[in-house]
Amino acid sequence: MMMDLWRNTRTPRSLAHTWDSIAREFDDFLGEFDSAITNRTGSTASLMTTACDVQENEKAYLMSFDVPGFKKEDISIEISGSTLTVSGKRQREEKVEEGKYHRIERQFGEFRRVFTLPDKVKAEAIEANYENGVLYLGLPKQEVSKTKKVEIGEAKPGFIKKLVGLKSDEEKKAVNEK
Predict the structure, then answer these.
(1) Taken in order 15, 18, 24, 30, is the CA torsion positive or negative?
(2) Cα–Cα nearest to 106, from 118, 95, 117
(3) Which of 33, 75, 77, 98 has its Cβ near the most Cβ atoms within 10 Å?
């Protein structure tokens, strides 16, 4: 009985109508989602992504970032210890024109990329260039120190105390006598 009801109510025409309805609802959902991540000024959510390529040769690493539309003054490169941070901010151009936007797909806002540098990067010699919307970073390599063998010596009195900052009995006596 249930099978007969299904056959009677679901014709190929009604199925096509159902699919059209689902497609419209999905498009509406995507439109609402797009609106939800767009703020009042029409710029997209505040965190952008930017592509980065990393190459290596025997002398250096080369990083290149796609940052079209950024001014070099709006890009920051910071090194703290072994951490490299590249960030930037692009404002939406405020132009007063007649008419309205139907779609805004260009990204505006901020990006931030954080990388841990390998030990062999010579941080003080990193160079950056910006050309045609691409930021290039050259990270030269330094020679990594070679392994050094440490010889074991004879025990010396007070060695451990000196190492950890404890004063010997003689040093304590001399301080107390002063």
Answers:
(1) negative
(2) 95
(3) 75
Q: What would the pLDDT profile of 50-81 be if each residue is shown by its tens digit?
A: 899 999 999 999 999 999 889 989 999 999 99
Whether residue 159 contacts residue 80, with contact meaning beta carbons closer than 8 Å, is answered with no
Residue 138: partners with Cβ closer than 8 Å, 6 or more residues away: 60, 61, 62, 126, 127, 128, 129
Kind plus residue range of the DSSP H or E element containing 109: strand 109-116
Give the domain 52-93+105-140 fold. Answer: Immunoglobulin-like (2.60.40)
113 Cβ contact partners less than 8 Å away, ≥ 6 residues apart = 50, 52, 65, 85, 86, 87
Residue scoring higher pLDDT (135 or 105):
135
Taking alpha carbons only, the member of 111, 109, 110, 112 closest to residue 41 is 109
Distance between CA atoms of 23 and 160, rounded to whole angstroms?
A: 77
Please give the Cα distance from 90 to 110 (Å, whole number). Answer: 6
Q: In this predicted model, what pLDDT tens digit does every residue of 119-132 receive, in sequence order?
A: 889 989 999 999 99
116 with 86: CB under 8 angstroms? no
141 with 120: CB under 8 angstroms? yes
Residue 69: closest CA among 107, 39, 43: 107
